[in-house]
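Encode chain A's predicted structure.
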Amino acid sequence: MKLQGKAASITGGTSGIGLATAKLFIREGARVAVTGRDASRFDPVRAELGDEALIVAADVRSPTDMETVSRWIRATFGGLDILFSNAGIA
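Encoded structure for chain A:
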């Protein structure tokens, strides 16, 4: 398990590449926080990632939202080792 004991945050982690990365990180032992804007995705994502994953509603364009994410990660994981800035629109 290459990521054992590591804490990761993945923006845009409730679908596509972000969700696939979250699954891989969890398989490799990381604790994972994912962010997303579409709350309707949260329950299916929680079912896929498990109860240990932290799922936070946030818009990466909002400094206030990202500060909230930071506080949740700090409180839940104690810090952050990996940041995958995946959110975006093509």
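The beta strands are 7-11, 31-36, 54-57, 82-85.
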